[in-house]
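To illustrate this point, we now present one chain and its tokenised fold:
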Amino acid sequence: MCLFDVARTPNGSVKEYVETIDYAPVLTSCLLSLTNSAFTPSAPPFSSCQEAVTRVGLDATLAAVLSFSLFRQKDLSAYLQRL
């Protein structure tokens, strides 16, 4: 299932989001990098996609993951290095 399909369902669960994001290692890596740097700088680092999605919420997760598609891969790497 595609992340867009999960986002379009009215009853999308955290489990469905996590499974979909985990299917793409690049998305998982980017989400963990972003959440570890921006959301909770003083908390212990997130170690899994499940933990990151649960702590920051579905809205923030969806916004972050969908925004990654706005960047080409090389631009995304440069952007994440600036965070």
Observations:
- Residues 3-82 form one domain.
- The two ends are 30 Å apart (CA to CA).
- The chain has six helices and no strands.
- The mean pLDDT is 77.
